[in-house]
Amino acid sequence: MLVIRFGWSFEGFTVTNVIYSSIAGVEIPKFVDTVTPQYKPKFDELLVELKEAEEKSLKESERLEKEIAEVQELKQKIST
Q1: By residue range, what is the domain housing residue 32?
Q2: Rounded to whole angstroms, how far apart are CA atoms 38 and 34?
Q3: For the chain, which terminus, N or C, has the lower number of CB atoms within 10 Å?
Q4: How far is the C-alpha of 65 from the C-alpha of 59, rounded, in Å?
Protein backbone atom coordinates (compact mmCIF):
# COMPACT_ATOMS: atom_id res chain seq x y z
CA MET A 1 0.00 0.00 0.00
CA LEU A 2 1.30 3.42 -0.98
CA VAL A 3 1.06 6.05 1.76
CA ILE A 4 1.47 9.69 0.87
CA ARG A 5 2.51 11.77 3.83
CA PHE A 6 1.64 15.45 3.61
CA GLY A 7 2.10 18.06 6.32
CA TRP A 8 3.73 21.32 7.19
CA SER A 9 6.43 19.81 9.38
CA PHE A 10 9.65 19.17 7.51
CA GLU A 11 12.56 17.06 8.56
CA GLY A 12 16.08 18.42 8.53
CA PHE A 13 17.19 21.94 7.71
CA THR A 14 14.73 24.13 5.93
CA VAL A 15 15.53 27.22 3.93
CA THR A 16 14.34 29.47 6.75
CA ASN A 17 16.64 27.73 9.24
CA VAL A 18 19.61 28.19 6.93
CA ILE A 19 18.81 31.88 6.38
CA TYR A 20 18.21 32.48 10.09
CA SER A 21 21.49 30.84 11.07
CA SER A 22 23.41 32.89 8.48
CA ILE A 23 21.80 36.17 9.64
CA ALA A 24 22.29 35.37 13.33
CA GLY A 25 26.02 34.98 12.74
CA VAL A 26 26.46 38.48 11.30
CA GLU A 27 27.84 41.05 13.72
CA ILE A 28 27.63 44.74 12.89
CA PRO A 29 30.58 46.72 14.27
CA LYS A 30 29.86 49.78 16.40
CA PHE A 31 30.23 53.05 14.49
CA VAL A 32 32.86 55.42 15.84
CA ASP A 33 32.70 58.93 14.42
CA THR A 34 36.21 60.31 13.96
CA VAL A 35 35.45 62.89 11.26
CA THR A 36 32.88 65.17 12.93
CA PRO A 37 35.19 66.47 15.69
CA GLN A 38 37.58 67.78 13.02
CA TYR A 39 34.87 69.78 11.25
CA LYS A 40 32.95 70.99 14.32
CA PRO A 41 35.03 74.20 14.84
CA LYS A 42 34.83 75.04 11.12
CA PHE A 43 31.08 74.53 11.15
CA ASP A 44 30.68 76.75 14.23
CA GLU A 45 32.71 79.52 12.56
CA LEU A 46 30.59 79.31 9.42
CA LEU A 47 27.44 79.43 11.54
CA VAL A 48 28.63 82.63 13.25
CA GLU A 49 29.48 84.18 9.87
CA LEU A 50 26.07 83.22 8.55
CA LYS A 51 24.29 84.86 11.50
CA GLU A 52 26.35 88.04 11.08
CA ALA A 53 25.59 88.14 7.35
CA GLU A 54 21.89 87.61 8.08
CA GLU A 55 21.83 90.51 10.56
CA LYS A 56 23.67 92.73 8.08
CA SER A 57 21.23 91.76 5.34
CA LEU A 58 18.23 92.53 7.55
CA LYS A 59 19.62 95.98 8.40
CA GLU A 60 20.25 96.67 4.71
CA SER A 61 16.71 95.52 3.85
CA GLU A 62 15.24 97.86 6.47
CA ARG A 63 17.30 100.76 5.13
CA LEU A 64 16.20 100.06 1.56
CA GLU A 65 12.55 99.79 2.61
CA LYS A 66 12.79 103.20 4.30
CA GLU A 67 14.42 104.65 1.20
CA ILE A 68 11.70 103.20 -1.04
CA ALA A 69 9.01 104.65 1.24
CA GLU A 70 10.68 108.09 1.08
CA VAL A 71 10.89 107.94 -2.72
CA GLN A 72 7.22 106.96 -2.96
CA GLU A 73 6.26 109.88 -0.69
CA LEU A 74 8.28 112.28 -2.84
CA LYS A 75 6.66 110.84 -5.96
CA GLN A 76 3.19 111.44 -4.50
CA LYS A 77 4.11 115.02 -3.52
CA ILE A 78 5.47 115.74 -6.99
CA SER A 79 2.45 114.23 -8.77
CA THR A 80 -0.05 116.41 -6.84
Answers
A1: 15-79
A2: 8
A3: N
A4: 10
- Whether 7 maps to a domain, the answer reads no
Work out how many domains the chain is built from and give that number. Answer: 1
The values of phi and psi at residue 38, to 5°, are -70, -35
The torsion defined by the Cα of 52, 56, 61 and 67, in degrees rounded to 10, comes to 170
Q: CA 57, 60, 66, 69 torsion: positive or negative?
A: negative
Residue 6 resides in a domain: no
* pLDDT number for residue 66: 97
- CA-based torsion, 13, 14, 18, 20: positive or negative: negative
Mean pLDDT (whole number) for 26-31: 87
Q: For 29-64, what is each residue's pLDDT tens digit?
A: 899 888 888 899 999 999 999 999 999 999 999 999
**Residues constituting the chain:** 80
